[in-house]
Structures are given as C-alpha cells and as structure tokens.
Specification:
The chain is mostly beta strands. The protein has one domain. The protein is built from one helix and six strands. A three-stranded antiparallel sheet has the order 1-6-5, with no helix packed on it. A hairpin with a 4-residue loop joins strand 5 and strand 6.
Length: 80
C-alpha cells in the first residue's frame, strides 16, 4: 500500500475530471480523478475509488492497493 498525505497534495483537486463521451459501442461514461502539485501527479478512474483506492477525508490521505508492477519495481530499486 502507498499512503499519500493531504499536506503533500493539498493543491490537488480530487473533483471529477473531464468526462469522455461514450464510444458508439459503449453504454457508460468514464470519469477520472486527476491532480498535480509540487512534483506529484496522480490520476485514476472513478470505479477504483473505494476498492483499490481508499480516501480518508478526515486524515486527508489516499491509500493505494495493488500498485502497478512497474511502479512497485521502481520503488524497490529506489529503496534498495
């Protein structure tokens, strides 16, 4: 899991991003959350909120579960 403190991402807007119009064969609209501030950039699809991404409003944190393998490998190399 990766924890991000709100103080580090205070300028990031966690509001709804742009909605993309559905393709002719798609029945739903995809909504993303995006934000960028002080060297941190994050984006994720709305359906991940509550499952792989937990938002603690009181603590001002995001908890990321099931990190992409490429990111996990980069973090391990940096820590090693």
């Amino acid at each position: 899991m990766l924890y991000l403190k709100a103080a580090a991402i205070a300028a990031i807007s966690l509001g709804h991003g742009t909605e993309q119009p559905p393709a002719e064969s798609a029945a739903s609209i995809r909504t993303d959350f995006t934000g960028r501030a002080d060297g941190l950039s994050i984006s994720f699809e709305q359906h991940l909120l509550g499952s792989r991404i937990k938002f603690n409003e009181a603590g001002g944190t995001l908890t990321l579960c099931g990190l992409p393998r490429q990111l996990t490998d980069q973090l391990k190399r940096a820590a090693g």
